[in-house]
Amino acid sequence: MDPKEKKVKEEELNVENIQENAENIQENAEEQPQNEQAEEQAPLTREEELEQELAKAQETIEDQKDKFLRLSAEFDNYRKRTMKEKAELVLNGGEKCLGSILPIVDDFERAIKTMETATDVSAVKEGVELIYTKFINVLGQNGVKIIETKELPLNTDFHEAVAVIPAPKEELKGKILDCVQTGYTLNDKVLRHAKVVVGE
């Protein structure tokens, strides 16, 4: 074989080898990221798993801590608001009741002025009785009721015996004969016991 031809053939072989090497390098470069992905998908070690769990737990703790702080602040605001409302209620609780009594005070003022020039005692008496009836009605609207006593058996929950006298009739023994001081209840709770005289 001619030396020139031999040289050309060697050069061609070298070119082919270089091309093959270039292709191999390119294939290896393409395979490398796949290998890296395979490494990423490889199962985690026990330490890495614990680190991930710890990170999640810390995130949950921070979230719960934030929620707790918000709830605590909300509750504190609610407590302060409730205390303020209670204080206002104690201070102004009787406003409605007292407001309903004011017209009766006006009636008394008018009655006093009328008494200065009145000559008819029965008319004055009738006027005072009307004011009294109006007053009892207003008390009833505000939950205040008179404790009934007349000829009822003594009930120590509502009545207080201040005297015991002989009963005029047999059937009145152990029953209330007279009421010395009227008793009242407020929404079924005793406001003042009725002071009574009982027959024996």
From TrEMBL:
Residues 1-12 have a biased composition (Basic and acidic residues). Residues 1-55 are annotated as: Disordered. InterPro entries: GrpE, GrpE_CC, GrpE_head. Residues 16-43 have a biased composition (Low complexity). Keywords: Chaperone. One of its GO terms (biological process) is protein folding. One of its GO terms (molecular function) is protein homodimerization activity. Belongs to the GrpE family. This is GrpE nucleotide exchange factor. It comes from gut metagenome.
